[in-house]
Amino acid sequence: MKKWKDASSLIVMVANITSKTDLKKPNFHLLKLRKKSEYFPKISVFPGGSVSPADYSSEWIHIFQGGDCKFGSNQTSDKNLSSVDDYDMPKSIFLKITAIRETFEECGLLLCKYNNNKLNEPFAQHFQIESIDFWRNKVINDPFQFINLCKEFKCYPNIEVIYPWSNWLTPRHIPKKFDAKFFITTLVNKEPVTPDNIEIESCGVNI
């Protein structure tokens, strides 16, 4: 039987500040992407994609150690996520890196944190950098450039605010098989997002 490929997806929520006064409105907005898909045309999806070897590179260990993030501290009791297999780190770490990288590639939202930021924030924030479009294109063309981005700007993927949510397996009738882990996070503010125009044709925070 063909091995299923590991993949990650990130559900990004934005707090609805008007929900306290209008109970008919939801508590959160969701970031949704309109994906170009052979099997599900015009389908709305969350950011995500398959794991790249760059996501489980041992270089990430040094990047996390250079920051305030305790590498591996945000583990989960899920055995499927805690396993290491043939990788250099637990799945609970590199699947989150995949989700953050894919979110950056597909809609330009960069969920990273400065190495010297010691604030224990419960929410995610967009990490604004110079030449962000330049770096986004580099990461799209070569996922290993995400490592170089973090080295250049002295930051790391903010895996501490990414939490496991669900698991999805590709239906039998679809040839490509993915074992996709869904994670969830909440943004402090609504951030502008733009599609990559490669896999994603439109994106936005829907009410």
UniProtKB/TrEMBL annotation:
Keyword set, alphabetical order: Hydrolase, Magnesium, Manganese, Metal-binding
Transmembrane parts of this sequence: none
This protein's GO CC annotations: mitochondrion
Leader sequence residues: none
Molecular function via GO: hydrolase activity, acting on acid anhydrides, in phosphorus-containing anhydrides; metal ion binding
Top-rank taxon, per record: Eukaryota
Cofactor(s) needed for function: Mg(2+); Mn(2+)
Alphabetized PANTHER family for the sequence: ACYL-COENZYME A DIPHOSPHATASE NUDT19 (PTHR12318:SF0), TESTOSTERONE-REGULATED PROTEIN RP2 (PTHR12318)
Sequence similarity: Belongs to the Nudix hydrolase family.
Entry protein name: Nudix hydrolase domain-containing protein
Native source organism of the sequence: Clastoptera arizonana
